[in-house]
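Follow-up to my post from last week.
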Amino acid sequence: MTGELRVEHLSVEYVKRPRLGHKEERRHIAVNDVSFALPSGGTLGIVGESGCGKTTLGHAVLQMTPVSRGRILWDGTDLTELRGAALRPFRRQMQLVFQDPFEAMNPRMTVDRIVSEPLHLAFGMARSARRYKAAELLQQVGLDETVLSRYPRQLSGGQRQRVALARALATEPRLLVLDEPTSGLDASLQARTLNLLRDLQADKGFSTLFISHDLSAVSYVAHRTLVLFGGHMMEQGPTATLIRGPAHPYTAALLAAVPVPAQGRATTSAQNAIPRAGQFASTGCIYCPWCNQAQSRCHLDAPIATALGGEHLVACHYPLPGKP
Amino acid sequence: MNTRRIALAVCGLTVGHARKARARALVDDLSFEVAEGEMLAFVGESGSGKSLTAAAIFGLLPFGLRRLAGSVHLRDTELTALSERALRVRRGRDMGLVFQNPLTALNPSRSVQAQIAETYQVHKGGTRGAAWARARSLLAEVGLASAANGPETYPHQLSGGMRQRVMIAIALACDPILLIADEPTTALDVVVQAQILDLLTRLRQERGLAVLFITHDLALAAARADRVLVLYAGRAVEEGDAARFFRAPCHPYSRALRDAIPAIHGLGGRLTEIPGLPPGPGALPPGCRFAPRCPSAQDDCHQTEPTMRRTAPRCACLHPSLETP
Ligand SMILES: Nc1ncnc2c1ncn2[C@@H]1O[C@H](COP(=O)(O)OP(=O)(O)OP(=O)(O)O)[C@@H](O)[C@H]1O
Ligand SMILES: Nc1ncnc2c1ncn2[C@@H]1O[C@H](COP(=O)(O)OP(=O)(O)O)[C@@H](O)[C@H]1O
Ligand code: SF4
Ligand code: SF4
Ligand SMILES: [Mg+2]
Ligand SMILES: [Mg+2]
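User reply:
Got it. Predicted complex:
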């Protein structure tokens, strides 16, 4: 068991119910032909603005959302072909920490039960052993035993996030999907959570899909980064390469919007509108309406992902010159 | 800059439990001012009292908590002396509040145009037509052209960033003196965040709006605010010019907060953590409240409580770092 994830040409389509008085159902492609590989023990950052399909991508990898096209290979096994009981052993190996941990927790369960439930379900562990293990898991994520008897609403956002992490770690997963794990946390808790993730990963060797809109956090934890826009992959490659020399105009716009202390930002980035489903260009490059590099070809024909050298892929007809 | 009128002056504000006399104050003797057109950023860890300060200014403290001392002046009006009814009027008209999660604050079944128009009409009166015209011009002002000119738009049709703009439009409906934005961009990506802050900057310049900006994001505060106030366990521990603050924080806690954030170009290296946790709801440690976590703590720190320096850089520490940047 090595724990390598390969995602090939993954698409996820949501079918929206027809609105009153309308006949046809509307389709929305939330993830469109995305491919990547995550080697065992590695971390891939998924970045992009809200609604771009990051969460959907994570859920699809975990088989929590039906996949429309493409393959999800876990150690060579295509998960999209498995159903029910055949999938169960894989589910244990892959855990999700939700974007909003409060919604995912049963408000009537104490922290003790939230963390120890998977121990019971996965390992059939006895009650006393569970409590001991739960306390140990909580300690690993920097919480003390006093939270064991509390309910989710009695915890701060940062504490809830760490309880969710402890629960996810309970089954000793090989892959952790973290959806915006630090977005609601203050600087101190974010530093602790990011360091914690690194230490846990070094210690336990799991792979991580780190979903975030915070490029600074991603740059800290992810070896590789994939940039999504409107469900499409714009660029992916080693994080340092992307940050030092973004090749896609959208990656460059994202980086330009990161606040730089003591410098201020008087102007907005290249974008002045927030794209939404249905507003994207229907032919050509989907980023076209917002792109400041667009040329006539961009309106007509959609760029396909091309290697710029090594592991650096970009979907753009006119990639920016990388910095040496 | 100092010649501008003071929009908000808070003096000695203390918030605590209404009944538990022995519990510590959650906001402790806090004083600050925000001038017209100025943006003051409040930073500090979770639970440091940022939102409670905002709630106390608005007279909207949660049940069980009370303002124990202090005054709040909005221009020349002492808000704490007003009756609940008079305060409600001021709240809608002169002060706007924007929260982190705009969806819970918007009514899902009414169009955003109607919601803005209603806020305006309640406080300013006038005809329905005038209120709708005002709603549309506000939507244009916050950069929602489609809702400004187009058909009625419902909250679920908008993205997170757009909803936050609607919240700002509602808060601005009656041309307030002060806007308090409590983590308005925490849930948003950097591009939308930059747009919202551009909008706030423009409103400050064009209308002289005073903004109290509450955030976890020190880099954002340093990049966009005029001044920064750092709160620790309910107390102000440092206050000053945003750029100076980030270059050369003088309080050990401010320095620790700054060093904890990952720099986007600083790939790699381990982040500096602040050891321990902020004090809980119980008693505070003796002496400096940051002492148990402070890397610069010395013996006297555990006995003597530091007070805020009167000259710049203003911070409350017995052994501050005062080198000029
Ligand atoms: N309704 C309440 N009853 C009792 N204590 C409360 C209540 N609301 C807040 N507190 C306490 O008051 C302190 C300050 O809370 P506040 O919400 O102002 O923090 P904050 O700085 O806004 O934090 P965050 O960054 O997490 O939003 C905390 O210790 C909190 O636990
Ligand atoms: N259950 C669903 N039904 C229909 N559309 C959905 C559903 N979940 C998400 N979407 C849509 O799919 C897109 C991607 O959503 P999501 O993956 O949650 O984005 P992100 O995590 O990047 O913010 C959005 O346009 C969203 O509105
Ligand atoms: S293909 Fe054209 S429109 Fe698309 S990102 Fe590249 S330059 Fe811009
Ligand atoms: S007074 Fe002492 S303990 Fe408190 S912040 Fe200053 S150096 Fe640290
Ligand atoms: Mg999401
Ligand atoms: Mg708060």
